[in-house]
Amino acid sequence: MATRESIADILNRIALLLELKGENPFKTRAYKTGAEIVETFAGDIVQRATDRDLKGIKGIGSALADKLHELATTGQLGYYNDLRAEFPETIFDLFGISGLGPKKIKALYDALGVGSLPELKAACESGTAAALPGFGAKSVGKILDAIAFNEQHADLFRLGDVAADAERILDLLREHPAVSQASMAGSYRRGKEVLHDLDFLVATNDAPTVMAAFVSMADVASTLVQGDTKSSLRLESGLQCDLRAVTNAEFPFALNYFTGSKEHNVAMRSRALKWGYTLNEYRLAPCADRERQPLRREPIETENDIYLALGLQPVPPALRENNGEIEAAENDNLPRLVQLQNLRGTFHNHTTASDGKASLAAMADAARALGLQYLGISDHSKSSVQANGLSAERLLAQVAEIRELNTTFDDGFKVFAGVECDILKDGSLDYDDSILTQLDYVVASVHSSFTLAEAEMTARVIRAVENPHVTMLGHLTGRLLLTRKPYAINVPKIIDACAANGTIIEINANPRRLDMDWRWWKLAKEKGVRCSINPDAHRTEHFQFLHFGVMVAQKGWLTREDVVNCLPLDEIETLLQSKS
Questions:
Q1: Residues 257-292 as b or e (16 or more Cβ within 10 Å = b)
Q2: Which terminus of the chain has a lower count of CB atoms within 10 Å, N or C?
Q3: CB 545 within 8 A of CB 536
Q4: Closest CA to 91 of 100, 185, 499, 194
Q5: Which residue in 314, 318, 317 sits closest to 334, CA to CA?
């Protein structure tokens, strides 16, 4: 069955293949535009395409409308199938290599017949790729590094990329008549940014029937194991999913054990032994040869009861990394973690003024529909030419547009005028202070010169932090999960600089980034550095990324007091004014 996502994916693939063929760029752009329209159209675009009701939608001509109808009604497109047959299917894998765009892939394919990752690696290692115009030894070296990085992470998946499958499968399990309880477990439940597989747990009195239903779901490419209490399968995406079945009495213990982490489980088992009990995935039982302390909670009916029985606060899954949570739980000192519903607004969002896909008004309307009190707009600055960065004149015109838009709201909602300002190679900013002072806030980010030495990169960012107009740092390490390594930077020194200058660090909630990494947030919190959870939204649906940002914040032990965009409108206005 065709979906909005599957149709947009095929249109984007057509655009890539047309670029490889060297077709007219306007034709290529038409398919990219078509994909964007399909992704962002407010109504049911699939039904409209099925009903041949696309007339009048800007950017969709008659030829594209016919193709959308074919896709919507059949799930296939003859034109795409014919185009794809001209190239090896594996050629799409090349687009996942950092630093390789359509032009270079076309050059490699035309000159050397490179159409797969193994062929690319061989061409780079043999020296033949370096002899091509536009490549050279340095460029090829970077490609080999990117290939090695991809190979190292070949069996990993980003949290955001598997979320839809995780929730879909969990809903199916919960709806099964033989299932009394169902939950996620493993790395996904703990909110890890990348993971190997998905773990599901059910309580049932008819495990074989549940297992049979599990392996017969849609999108299953292969069944790896099918047993009475455990089954494993692989989805068409390559993601492995594991299901375990237990009784209702065993469910709390199994959920705790299979959620992990391994290190947290070891610490929990050690505590149980000190109290005279053994703890495993099935039960908490007394040791025959040990003196026992009385349990603080009996009977154990829920996962939280396990912690309470052993004299601990219940530890949220996000904190179960053996990072001090047991000691904090023993002293009744676990943080009250920030929740999605605590957010009152958000910053670092883009519009069509730079490289966003929704207008200023559309972004504001979407934020209001989510119940937010305010929205920060921070389009790209002038040096980000590839992102249609704003000249000083265009930026100030947008500021005026935002001020005018704010006069139309009758519910107290406010749009803040900001910018995502490039930190230039020497640490200076992309606009003069005379421009920055006219904004409500500034997000400073690195978008170029990623290969600086650590000391130079650190000094570069610290210089930006020390500019009094910089409100917050965007995507601190520049990483793209499973695609691009972080650039070399001394994070503790940056945290110290932010503490000294009252500069906020964002959690970039785009699931490809999730930057600053959760492992640094306890240190930042200890230093008094505050956080802003930002979606880096380039379209209205990207506001949903806030969910992943909250997960990172929770893993970093952050409370609502640590997150500035939990502040109500009047308080965030005061905070921004103190930095502008």
A1: bbbbbeebbebbeebbeebbbebeeeebeeeeeeee
A2: N
A3: yes
A4: 100
A5: 314
Distance, CA of 176 to CA of 132 (rounded, Å): 58
| Gap between the Cα atoms of 15 and 2, Å rounded | 19
Under a CB-based contact definition with an 8 Å cutoff, are residues 354 and 390 in contact? Answer: yes
Question: Which run of H or of E encompasses 310?
Answer: none
DSSP 150-194: HHHTTT-EEHHHHHHHHHHHHHHHHHSTTEEEEEEEHHHHHT-SE
* Alpha carbons 153 and 55: distance in angstroms, whole number: 44
DSSP string spanning 421-477?
Answer: EEB-TTS-BSS-HHHHTTSS--EEE--S-TT--HHHHHHHHHHHHTSTT--EESSTT
Q: Structure pTM? A: 0.86
**CATH 1.10.150.110 is right for the domain spanning 4-152:** yes
Sign of CA dihedral 472, 477, 480, 484: positive
Q: Regarding the domain delimited by 157-248, which CATH topology (the fold level of the hierarchy) does it fall under?
A: Beta Polymerase; domain 2 (3.30.460)
Pairing outcome for strands 504-508 and 472-473: parallel
Tokens representing 124 are 């780079």
348/32 Cα distance (integer angstroms): 24
pLDDT digits 0-9 by tens, 182-240: 999 999 999 999 999 999 999 999 999 999 999 999 889 999 999 999 999 999 889 99
Are residues 200 and 251 in contact, defined by beta-carbon separation less than 8 angstroms?
Answer: no
Rg (CA), the chain: 26
Domain 340-579 sits in CATH 3.40.50.720: no
DSSP 358: S
Helix 62-74 vs helix 4-21: crossing angle, to nearest 10 = 130
CA-nearest of 463, 472, 458, 392 to 430 is: 392
The amino acid that residue 38 corresponds to is V
Phi and psi at 157, nearest 5°, equal: -135, 145
pLDDT band for 98, please (50, 70, 90 cuts).
confident
Q: Which residues pair with 48 in a beta bridge?
A: none
Query: Minimal CA–CA distance to 420: which of 330, 575, 535, 521?
Result: 535
Instruction: Count Cβ atoms below 10 Å from residue 555 Cβ, excluding itself.
Output: 26
Give strand pairing partners of 422: 445
Give the domain ranges of the chain. Answer: 4-152, 157-248, 252-330, 340-579
Rounded Cα distance between 380 and 355, Å, is 8
| Yes or no: domain 252-330 corresponds to CATH 3.30.210.10 | yes
Element (H, E) at 286: strand 284-286
Length of the chain, please? 580
Instruction: Give the CB-side neighbour count of residue 325, counting CA atoms within 13 A.
Output: 27
Query: Is the separation of the CB atoms in 211 and 220 below 8 Å?
Result: no
Distance linking the first and last C-alpha atoms of the chain: 51
Identity of the amino acid at 54: L
